[in-house]
Design brief:
The structure is a homodimer.
Chain A: E1 11-15, H1 17-27, H2 29-44, E2 56-59, E3 64-71, E4 75-83, E5 97-103, E6 109-114, H3 116-134, E7 141-145, H4 151-162, E8 166-170, H5 174-184, E9 190-193, H6 197-200, E10 206-209, E11 216-220, E12 230-233, E13 242-244, H7 246-251, E14 252-256, H8 259-265, E15 278-279, H9 280-284, E16 297-301, H10 306-319, E17 327-330, H11 341-347
Parallel strand pairs in A: 1-6, 7-8, 7-10, 8-9, 10-12, 11-13, 12-16, 14-15, 14-16
Antiparallel strand pairs in A: 1-17, 2-3, 3-4, 4-5, 5-6
């Protein structure tokens, strides 16, 4: 609890998991995804303004813990995120996350937020935003292969942002598909549960893969992918973890967030280090070509980049100006005299 | 506030500024410094076990924001810390910090703690720990040049850990010295306020410099430093910020925490990239020589390393097992079914 002598400078707004859930439900999840995509698009369009670095990863046998920092002239943001595929079997989340937004001018944090939910939202919003630029015209059916924690967020983002009206679900575990069908049943989407990956992609102009194994897997084989589709590849996001057969990559035009990171973590870790890829921010600014024709296969090799988290933190920081979905956290020592930290400590009996 | 359906896994113990102050005062600050130094020493003595990386810094014209991660086989820790010299004039702290300790095996955070106070404590504990190995035998007088936020913590750490009984204070701003004299008046130390740096080092076997300008300064000139002293140089800790004249460095034997970081940030940024330095963990393990003779000048070129923060977080994490100086924070989304993040969100109305 705050102590009586603490100054307002000592407090950082904290958005808990419960606050985030209330904020999402109060606003409406499709509205959140649409608004969030606008923040992400605005930041992609000023890409050169950001300090960028590949994420700082600490790998162990069981998973990875990462810090993803970035900054513009005004704000600094970072996300802490883990990835532990074995967690699910032990009743933990594969991915949990939290993040901080700070003021560059004085270094003080201005927001601490849960980001497990927020990461799912920003990943889905980014996918749909990218598809807005790359998916074939009139694509209204999406295959969703991998029906885990990301699945429903992807479905609703594509509905809200790209006009998708039908999703075809497949997972190696039918219970996962069943859960997704139930969660999506009252969203207005047509939901089709499929018994194979091949079945799921039938008639789909957009194929989303979001599986979670920390392995080189082949969720899509070459013969499954026909001309003209857009592939939204979410799951291949760390060294040694891919979802697509290499032959699909060489038939596609590949679009990425930040090449130095994607070459380490994305599907393109299967290709040569200088294999040509297109940066999405350039497509959004009209400096590079997106989809060229109806038969082209476009591939978003999504790994998730720090700027998307930065956009998400900016979004939440703005959002809580109007909504009381936060609590002040006594996180920063702020003595009356900045040089008298010792006096502040010892006078607090 | 926690919501009724959240599981215990969702909560992370949070040690606020107020909790930290209460913990320090309840335990006694000298006892805290001594216990903390033991954690730091234990971790220095198993140095090769840690994942080490130089801090990840984001520089702006006005300051720096840094992330300092490290990990052993069991825990991962990182600290967020800013350094904004101009803050003090605007009524903000030059340095604020917080940190997180996590489980390597599942990636879940197990502690979020304020670290503005904790950093001051760990910096002082490290300085005194190092001096225990390097200071001349029987040194009981310390000069303390720079009487800002770090000053009193340094004085008490050297009292508790090295047996220092007299501190001679000097600051360019007499008000800072006055504050330190007042804060230290009832600690049992003999306090001498001095009007010049030259005066302060009179008879001192240990010289601590902890000033805060983001500039190449010369707090000590060559002719001020006589044979046989130990210099504890705290303030030179980022590129372009040093406190000692280069000639002092070449007359000293230099001891550092982590060479790749110290060469960028420490006093030795003034020297050649391959200038010989000794790593402190090797001294503590008896693998390298510390002080050789009574006339040698030893210099601890302190910049602060992630392992010290890791030790400090371990210390606090253990400490709150016995003391209720924390609150549970609803920071991690933890659905009953790990794959059903969406259901958890949308069912919370």
């Amino acid at each position: 609890m705050p102590h009586p002598i603490a100054s307002p400078l000592a407090f950082v707004p904290f958005v808990s998991v419960d606050d985030m859930m209330k904020l999402v439900n109060k606003t409406g999840i499709e509205k959140v995804l649409t608004e969030l995509a606008a923040y992400i698009e605005a930041d992609f369009k000023r890409w050169p303004e950001f300090d960028k670095t590949p994420r700082v990863a600490s790998h162990s046998d069981e998973g990875v813990i990462e810090l993803m920092p970035t900054a513009d002239a005004e704000n600094y943001g970072f996300k802490y995120v883990n990835g532990h595929p074995k967690n699910m079997k032990e009743g933990y989340q594969t991915v949990t996350a939290f993040g901080v937004l700070s003021s560059v001018s004085n270094g003080y944090p201005i927001l601490l937020s849960e980001m497990t939910i927020l990461t799912a939202l920003r990943t889905a919003a980014t996918s749909a935003l990218v598809a807005k630029y790359l998916a074939p015209t009139g694509a209204t059916t999406m295959a969703l292969i991998g029906n885990g924690a990301q699945c429903e967020f992807q479905a609703l983002a594509f509905k809200a942002i790209c006009g998708v009206d039908t999703v075809r679900l497949y997972d190696v575990d039918p219970a996962a598909t069943e859960k997704a069908v139930k969660n999506l049943s009252s969203t207005g989407l047509n939901i089709v549960a499929c018994s194979t990956g091949q079945d799921a992609i039938e008639g789909a102009g957009i194929i989303t893969t979001c599986t979670a194994d920390k392995l080189c897997a082949t969720i899509l084989t070459d013969n499954m992918v026909g001309a003209g589709v857009h592939i939204n590849a979410i799951g291949g996001d760390c060294p040694g973890k891919t979802e697509l057969h290499r032959d699909i990559l060489t038939r596609s035009d590949i679009f990425v967030e930040y090449p130095p990171q994607t070459r380490i973590e994305g599907e393109i870790q299967q290709l040569a280090e200088d294999y040509p890829v297109t940066e999405l921010w350039q497509v959004m600014l009209g400096q590079a070509e997106g989809r060229k024709d109806a038969r082209q296969i476009t591939l978003f090799d999504s790994v998730g980049f720090a700027i998307e988290d930065f956009s998400a933190l900016r979004f939440i920081s703005d959002k809580i100006k109007d909504h009381p979905f936060y609590e002040p956290l006594d996180m920063l020592a702020d003595p009356d005299d900045p040089r008298d930290l010792f006096g502040m400590v010892t006078r607090r009996k």
